[in-house]
Write a sequence for this structure.
């Protein structure tokens, strides 16, 4: 508090002050705020695409460090379906979503072109269920697997090249397995 007026004898005459009373509601609100901030730091640190879809396949939430990395505004997805975002390339998302509506968890691969470069993703899409077991939404996590896809393609090319060399060689080639 603070004395705002004094008597002629130098004693406090009028005082002003505030009193803070923390209710249970205020305490819980603060805890929820802290938990929400922690959750946002967590998901915004992950390179994966983390999202939620409603029953019409519209994005209702989208998170992940990839948004910042690709300089992408969440509004490019929020309120939109895969068809709205990807056009004719939405088919793998729509097929997976149809299975999720039946209660399945689906893992699927897909690709898109970003800045002229083909980028590969693997997505896991799961139902979010109500206490009565009804599917009420879907949760998805997608991961950029471009490096893995490119490594697999190089390995396949190397295998085909080795097979061609073996088949067209004039020399005998023996393969010995130590085991």
């Amino acid at each position: 508090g603070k004395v705002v007026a004094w008597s002629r004898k130098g004693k406090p005459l009028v005082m002003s002050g505030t009193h803070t009373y923390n209710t249970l509601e205020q305490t819980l609100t603060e805890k929820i705020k802290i938990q929400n901030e922690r959750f946002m730091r967590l998901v915004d640190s992950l390179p994966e695409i983390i999202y939620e879809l409603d029953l019409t396949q519209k994005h209702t939430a989208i998170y992940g460090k990839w948004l910042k990395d690709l300089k992408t505004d969440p509004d490019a997805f929020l309120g939109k379906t895969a068809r709205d975002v990807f056009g004719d390339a939405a088919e793998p998302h729509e097929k997976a979503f149809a299975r999720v509506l039946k209660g399945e968890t689906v893992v699927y691969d897909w690709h898109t072109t970003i800045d002229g470069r083909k980028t590969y993703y693997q997505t896991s899409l799961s139902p979010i269920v109500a206490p009565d077991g009804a599917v009420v939404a879907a949760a998805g996590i997608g991961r950029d697997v471009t490096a893995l896809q490119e490594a697999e393609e190089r390995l396949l090319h190397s295998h085909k090249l080795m097979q061609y060399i073996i088949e067209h060689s004039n020399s005998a080639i023996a393969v010995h397995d130590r085991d």
The chain has a mean pLDDT of 89. The longest strand covers residues 117-129.
